Automatic annotation (TrEMBL):
It is an enzyme of class 2 (transferase). It comes from Methylobacterium iners. Its EC number is 2.7.1.130. Belongs to the LpxK family. The keyword Transmembrane helix does not apply. Keywords: ATP-binding, Kinase, Lipid A biosynthesis, Lipid biosynthesis, Lipid metabolism, Nucleotide-binding, Transferase. This is Tetraacyldisaccharide 4'-kinase.
Amino acid sequence: MRAPAFWEGSPDHPAARLLAPLGRFYGRHTAARMDRPGEAAPCPVLCVGNFTLGGAGKTPTALALAALLRRLDAAPAFLTRGYGGRLAGPVAIDPTRHSAAETGDEPLLLARAGPTIVARDRPAGARLCAARGAAVIVMDDGLQNPSLAKDLSLAVVDAAVGIGNGLPFPAGPLRVPLPRQWRHVHGLVLIGGGEPGERLARGATERGLAVHRARLAPVGAAFRDRAVFAFAGIGRPEKFFASLREAGARIAGTRAFPDHHPYRPRDLDALAEAAQRAGAVLVTTEKDHVRLPPGFPAETFSVTLRFEDEAALLARLEAMMASR
């Protein structure tokens, strides 16, 4: 879905006020579910989640944290629901064999970096991770899923938008009212800058929670001074377009699609025609690229997450591993 604009506005917006009763019902129901005790996994579980619906940068964060765990000589495996895919799992993902239609897009990205299990039943997925040799599970999303106990839960926050209007879905982007979510997290990963994120960082600090600051950085300089027609079906396409501009690309045109959008032939034909008219190359995100058919002429703009204080995060991950 594409997030409605009023989610980032005031909680007094007419649409937000109209939907607020539904939001209160949804929030109470989801909060009660979130509070249930979970099943213990055979190895430590590091949960990378977020407070809101939509993209905050969870998958780049999961990839970066797995890289830090490898520096500690831990063997991580990724566990994910496989949103948008038809496989229920638990199943080990092979990026050369599985498609985005089967697994969703994030598992294919994760599987390029390490063993990845898709499972709607998270405890069953955790058992398969351990059976395949994982010493630690990096759970991409699932903060609000109570079925599996977590050893360390980090909430990823896009500092530019924070929690939007602060209301539960559908009146706003929150999955659960924020006061009910704080008790389930051990720290924040704050990506980028912005007052909305800083307000959450202050709230975390007041509760004694660590704030790990990070930023997304482009990999290489492949698009500097090049004319590009950019398209994306992610939580915040405009963030992707801004990153391209910051990397020196000349934006000849853009098109935004809903998050996890399945690209159809008419979409691809329209994109190719628009890029040709603009005299530009097509460029998209890694997450979108795995949903494109082989041979479609779109290049990928790759980013990586970099933490400001890796030493503090490494110490925290080491303590998590030692606690078992």
